[in-house]
């Protein structure tokens, strides 16, 4: 994770953006016993990529990638219905 994760989260929240940690741990390469490396990922909503990049830069956090994720209608439907589906 970023050494200044708390600073990034604080700066994003101060700007009125929603910040969620979506980090995961990478699996070791096949045939190795190396310890998995953490992969820092964050889900941020409420601002443009340019705004988020500027806030991260000002917080001293280097972003390796900044992407926009588009959700499908199915994803939105499942969120709204609480994943309850009746068949019949």
Description:
The chain has 88 residues and is α+β, with helices and mostly antiparallel strands. The chain has one domain (5-81). Helices cover 33% and strands 14% of the residues. The protein has helices spanning 5-14, 49-58, 73-81, and strands at residues 18-21, 24-25, 38-39, 42-45. The chain is flat, with a radius of gyration of 17 Å. The mean pLDDT is 80. This is ABC transporter ATP-binding protein.
Helix/strand layout:
Layout: H1 5-14, E1 18-21, E2 24-25, E3 38-39, E4 42-45, H2 49-58, H3 73-81
Antiparallel strand pairs: 1-4, 2-3
Organism: Streptococcus anginosus
Protein name: ABC transporter ATP-binding protein
> Structural class of the secondary structure composition?
alpha+beta
Quaternary structure annotation: single chain
Residue-averaged pLDDT = 80
Count of DSSP H/I helices: 3
Shape: flat
Domain count, please report it. 1
Helical content band: 25-40%
What sequence of helices (H) and strands (E) makes up the elements?
A: HEEEEHH
Hey, roughly how much beta strand do the residues contain? 5-15%
Distance between the termini: 46 Å
The side-by-side strand order for the widest beta sheet comes to 1-4
* Low-confidence residue ranges: none
Q: Let me know the number of strands.
A: 4
Radius of gyration: 17 Å
Largest sheet: 2 strands, antiparallel
Protein name: ABC transporter ATP-binding protein
Keywords:
two-stranded antiparallel sheet; flat; alpha+beta; 88 residues; two-stranded antiparallel ribbon; single chain; 4 strands; ABC transporter ATP-binding protein
């Amino acid at each position: 994770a970023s050494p200044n994760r708390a600073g990034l989260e604080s700066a994003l929240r101060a700007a009125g953006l929603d910040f969620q940690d979506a980090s995961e741990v990478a699996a070791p390469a096949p045939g190795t016993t190396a310890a998995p490396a953490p992969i820092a990922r964050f889900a941020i909503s409420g601002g443009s990529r340019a705004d988020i990049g500027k806030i991260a830069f000002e917080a001293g956090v280097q972003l390796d990638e900044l992407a926009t994720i588009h959700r499908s209608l199915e994803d939105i439907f499942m969120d709204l219905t609480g994943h309850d589906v009746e068949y019949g």
